[in-house]
Design goal:
It is built from 6 helices and 8 strands; from the N terminus they run E-E-E-E-H-E-H-E-H-H-E-E-H-H. By secondary structure, the protein is of the alpha/beta class. The chain has a single domain, classed as Alpha-Beta Barrel (TIM Barrel). The strands form 2 sheets. A 6-stranded mixed beta sheet has the order 2-3-5-6-7-8. Strands 1-4 form a two-stranded antiparallel sheet. Helix 3 packs across helix 4. The chain is globular and about 40 Å long. The chain starts with a strand and ends with a helix. The structure holds iron/sulfur cluster (SF4). The site of iron/sulfur cluster has 13 residues, from loops.
């Protein structure tokens, strides 16, 4: 199996989720968000096709990382390959984050006809969902580009059949906001 990537794995990121993370930049995105920070990842033919086994080998050799983040591009466009890599990440006790332009609800709908979407969701700990909306852009939105995007605990959401947000990231925002007035 192969995956189309926009670049090499990026280690030591502290902005693509909690902790020190390695980011897998997938290539290909259909959303065309105005103001996208990464337009070079939109094409479904650019980047490079890489063997999933090669990615797994690189992950097995990582040091000093706490988690793996799928970003892009939209990783959901390559859900089967991403699910396979994400499952491997859990074998090394890495937590898995994923950024997607789809909403969680859209993904559930898509999963009815595309099993790999649910396979991938089953391997994701935290999902940052929804398109980037320029007028909702905020530096206070920790780990998000715009405030409409949500930071979702995927496993709790799947189990409870409702969207469960990771509340601590929203509490951090409130504390930070309050500090401005002290
Ligand atoms: S979903 Fe992400 S990569 Fe795709 S267009 Fe929107 S901001 Fe850019």
């Amino acid at each position: 199996m192969q995956i189309r990537l926009a670049s090499d794995l990026q280690t030591d990121s502290i902005v693509d989720g909690e902790g020190i993370r390695t980011v897998i930049w997938t290539q290909g995105c259909p959303h065309n968000c105005a103001g996208c920070h990464n337009p070079s990842t939109h094409s479904f033919s650019d980047g490079a096709l890489v063997d999933v086994d090669l990615i797994k080998e690189e992950i097995s050799k990582l040091e000093g990382q706490t988690g793996i983040t799928f970003s892009g591009g939209d990783p959901m466009c390559q859900a089967e390959a991403c699910a396979s890599v994400a499952s491997f990440c859990h074998e090394f006790n890495y937590d898995v984050w994923c950024y997607t332009g789809y909403t969680y609800e859209q993904l559930l709908e898509l999963s009815k006809t595309k099993k790999s979407i649910m396979d991938f969701l089953n391997q994701i700990d935290v999902l940052v969902d929804g398109k980037f909306v320029l007028k909702e852009k905020s530096l206070d939105a920790i780990f998000r580009g715009s405030k409409n995007q949500r930071i979702i605990d995927v496993q709790k959401s799947l189990n409870s059949k409702t969207v469960v947000l990771v509340s601590k990231y929203y509490e951090v925002n409130e504390k930070k906001k309050n500090k401005l007035y002290i």
